[in-house]
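Reading is simple: each integer encodes one residue's backbone shape. An example follows:

___
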Amino acid sequence: MTGDFTDPFIESQEELLNSYEGSLRTIKIAGPVNYKAIVKFVCDMAQLDFGTAADPSAIRNYYVLTILMAGLIDDIDDSVNEILRAADLPISVQIIKIGGVSESENDFSTLIERTKGAFQQCERNFIDMHDIEDYKMKDKTTGSVLMREEKLQLDLMRNIPSQVEKFFEIQRFDFDNSNVFLNSPDPTNLDCSDSSS
């Protein structure tokens, strides 16, 4: 997300906004709209961390991939396959629909419809989908559209703790003896990272 592939992590909301603004100044927005590459990148990073961990307590990062989706998805099947890879990795996926309604067969609604069955078969819930329109409200006095930012932030974070817990439960992590993190001399032993798109 930072534009630096060696250190893509975002540490704060301010850094996230600065990164988006910087990206918008340096790129030209055009089609085709492909998500596979960014999802694969995050899955590959998580696989690298997860694959080298001999036991669950050695996993150092849990990734939260946030995808802002404006409508059309040109590589919908490839993107869905990559997103499904995240089910077995230390990743949660947040998809936020922004922008207008698409008339295409490869849009946000199609993504939800095509993936519902596959995601329900996964051992854990690791994906949440949000529509930005659900977080807008009209000011009664001015008529202007306001964003309910706190509700969006809460909804984006609401399921992450249970998704993290379920991931480690599947890995047979011993929560009763998990004070290994509390007794670690390294206070950054478990890093919760956000790789946003």
